[in-house]
């Protein structure tokens, strides 16, 4: 029933949209709170979006789509019930289309870039992800996309994606090496928060055969906080020379462990082969970047 109603509502919305386009409307406004005190005759050459109203979209009983022509509100469409649900899903799309990428050439731009950590950016990748501390004010365009060979010297945090974490179907963690996305780990988005999805409970699949089986002594974004090892999926400790795992983002040196030493931070290490690696091994490679993508649930 709900599906039928939703499908009918989709048809209604599509018809409305087509009509709106055909009639060559001057301005279309969505009035969330019915306060039509606006002066429609004043000059205005831009769109306006109320970020507060749209991103914290909740407890809405009714939405009005108004059409302005000749300085007057000439049409009003009220959305309630099932039609409202459909309209909300359409209006409440997550972010800009430019934040979405067709990572696997599936023909669908369905993966939204939520975060990029850049090796040797000079600031903590952990706080960059946590709350944006250490993300440069004006990052290069390549930091916000998937041109992995383009110049990028900063982390990048998609604040909207991470701060409004909802309707997430899957989270994809990726490792970038020599300009290519070489490793992927998929997690379910169900029951997650932006800080808690990198764990065995949400693990779906990855490029590493033995990752699921473990064992693991760390499997989280926070990781080993004291040792500055984050986005850390580790198999075992055993003294520095025996430390082994799959992936780690190192924010700072730890004097006692040679494998953590570098001339600049952060350093991203990953097991280059299909199985875990000893962090001291030459097969534990250093990545240029790590990136987190989100796929949202769709209206079925
Ligand atoms: C970000 O998090 C760090 C670490 O918890 C904290 O020291 C810092 O004050 C936070 N910054 C902001 C802007 O919230």
Automatic annotation (TrEMBL):
The chain crosses the membrane at residues 7-34. Keywords: Membrane, Transmembrane, Transmembrane helix. This is Fibrinogen C-terminal domain-containing protein.
């Amino acid at each position: 029933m709900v599906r039928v109603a939703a499908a009918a509502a989709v048809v209604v919305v599509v018809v409305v949209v087509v009509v709106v386009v055909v009639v060559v409307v001057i301005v279309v406004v969505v009035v969330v709170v019915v306060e039509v005190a606006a002066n429609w005759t004043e000059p205005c050459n831009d769109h306006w979006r109320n970020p507060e109203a749209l991103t914290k979209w909740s407890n809405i009983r009714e939405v009005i789509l108004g059409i302005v022509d000749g300085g007057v509100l000439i049409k009003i469409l009220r959305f309630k019930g099932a039609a409202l649900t459909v309209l909300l899903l359409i209006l409440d799309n997550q972010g800009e289309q430019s934040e979405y990428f067709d990572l696997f050439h599936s023909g669908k731009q369905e993966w939204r870039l939520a975060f990029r950590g850049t090796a040797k950016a000079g600031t903590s990748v952990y706080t960059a992800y946590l709350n944006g501390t250490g993300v440069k004010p004006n990052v290069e365009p390549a930091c916000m996309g998937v041109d992995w060979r383009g110049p990028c010297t900063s982390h990048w945090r998609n604040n909207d994606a991470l701060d409004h974490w909802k309707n997430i179907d899957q989270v994809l963690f990726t490792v970038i090496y020599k300009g290519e996305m070489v490793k992927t780990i998929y997690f379910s988005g169900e029951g997650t928060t932006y800080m808690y999805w990198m764990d065995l409970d949400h693990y779906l699949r990855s490029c590493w055969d033995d990752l699921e089986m473990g064992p693991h002594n760390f499997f989280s974004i926070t990781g080993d906080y004291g040792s500055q090892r984050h986005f850390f999926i580790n198999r075992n400790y055993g003294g520095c020379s025996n430390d082994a795992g799959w992936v780690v983002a190192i924010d700072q040196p730890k004097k006692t462990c040679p494998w953590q030493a570098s001339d600049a931070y952060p350093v991203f290490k990953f097991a280059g082969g299909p199985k875990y690696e000893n962090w001291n091994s030459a097969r534990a490679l250093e990545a240029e970047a790590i990136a987190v993508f989100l796929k949202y649930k769709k209206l079925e």
